[in-house]
Design brief:
This is 60S ribosomal protein L18a-like protein. The protein is mainly alpha-helical and about 100 residues long. About 55% of the residues lie in helices and about 0% in strands.
Length: about 100
């Protein structure tokens, strides 16, 4: 017979009693702690291809591995879109 007293003694094992707050998101982000997306956004002003690299990561759902990356990858995707529009307008003005 399963009683409440018997279930009370069956506890789920804890992960780490010494450091209970150590979890998935306690690890620092890659690229000097700011994440791949924000690092790509900053480096994109020197080499705009980094914005396209971050856009591919964003569209490939890379942020499912670590949701903290989502904002930086989205910012890089927006920067890539604005850069592409600026290049297209510049080329059209020069050619026409």
């Amino acid at each position: 017979m399963d009683t409440a007293d018997e279930r009370k003694n069956e506890c789920a094992p804890s992960r780490n009693l010494e450091k209970p707050l150590l979890g998935k998101f306690d690890k620092p982000l890659p690229c000097f702690g700011c994440g791949i997306g924000w690092f790509s956004l900053l480096l994109g002003f020197v080499c705009p291809l980094m914005w396209y690299y971050a856009t591919i990561l964003y569209l490939g759902n890379y942020y499912h591995k670590d949701p903290r990356e989502r904002a930086g990858l989205a910012a890089s995707a927006i920067a890539a879109l604005l850069f592409t529009i600026a290049v297209v307008i510049t080329v059209l003005v020069i050619l026409l």
